[in-house]
């Protein structure tokens, strides 16, 4: 009789990894402008695209929550990652709607930076991943979250086409996210090895 499939530690880790990557892709690839526009016109637009945006947004939130929740780590880390994802995403959605309706305007550059979709995607995806993985010194790699807004500003100045902008921002988020995840692991691993070497080194005898 064939062995039954078990949702063990390895399976949970793999499923969580795939879930976070998929949620991150949807987070950066989905265009929520139709929902903001509908909010601006008090829902008077004759289209179902805003409703689709809402479903997409809730799907993204659900994917992050489910992915972080099934990670094979202690409950405190999972709760912290889920809290980060929900807080950042719902705050981003609220501020985005307020900015789209004109309630929030100045300073323009600040809101363009902090509400940048690539920035938010990395803050949630990478930040949650670092939390559940228990990163310590590896958090230095979290600085890559500032790259997408900088790239986006440069592309705006260059007046590239919308298609080029989308592809470059998506590529930037993917490359930065994967590179930062590996860098964080490498940094923590190097620090751990250094600490073990120091503990194993015999104490020096004074002359």
Commentary on this structure:
It is globular, with a radius of gyration of 21 Å. The chain starts with 8 loop residues before the first helix and ends in a 7-residue tail after the last helix. It is built from eight helices and no strands. Helix content is 72%, strand content 0%. It is mainly α and 207 residues long. The protein has one domain. The relative contact order is 0.11.
Strand-helix topology:
Blueprint: H1 9-29, H2 33-40, H3 49-69, H4 75-100, H5 108-114, H6 117-132, H7 147-158, H8 162-200
Helix pairs in contact: 1-3, 1-6, 1-8, 2-3, 3-4, 4-6, 6-8, 7-8
Key descriptive features of the protein:
207 residues; mainly alpha; disordered C terminus
Compact description:
The protein contains 8 helices and no strands. The chain has 207 residues and is mainly alpha-helical.
How many separate domains make up the residues? 1
Oligomer: single chain
Coarse morphology: globular
Radius of gyration, taken over Cα atoms and rounded to an integer in Å? 21 Å
DSSP E strands, number: 0
State the end-to-end CA separation.
70 Å
How many helices? The count is 8
* Chain-averaged pLDDT: 80
Class by helix and strand content? mainly alpha
The percentage of residues in β strands lies in under 5%
């Amino acid at each position: 009789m064939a062995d039954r499939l078990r949702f063990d530690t390895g399976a949970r880790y793999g499923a969580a990894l795939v879930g976070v990557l998929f949620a991150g892709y949807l987070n950066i690839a989905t265009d929520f402008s139709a929902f903001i526009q509908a909010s601006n016109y008090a829902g008077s637009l004759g289209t179902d695209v805003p409703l689709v945006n809402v479903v997409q947004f809730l799907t993204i939130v659900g994917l992050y929550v489910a992915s972080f929740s099934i990670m094979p780590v202690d409950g405190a880390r999972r709760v912290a990652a889920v809290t980060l994802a929900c807080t950042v995403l719902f705050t981003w959605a609220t501020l985005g709607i307020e900015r789209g309706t004109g309630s929030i305007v100045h300073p323009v550059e600040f809101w363009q930076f902090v509400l940048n979709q690539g920035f938010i995607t990395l803050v949630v995806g990478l930040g949650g991943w670092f939390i559940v993985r228990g990163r310590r010194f590896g958090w230095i790699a979290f600085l890559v979250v500032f790259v997408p807004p900088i790239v986006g500003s440069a592309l705006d100045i260059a007046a590239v086409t919308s298609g080029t902008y989308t592809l470059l921002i998506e590529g930037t988020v993917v490359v930065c996210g994967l590179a930062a995840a590996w860098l964080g692991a490498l940094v923590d691993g190097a620090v751990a090895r250094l600490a073990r070497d120091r503990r194993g080194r015999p104490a020096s005898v004074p002359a």
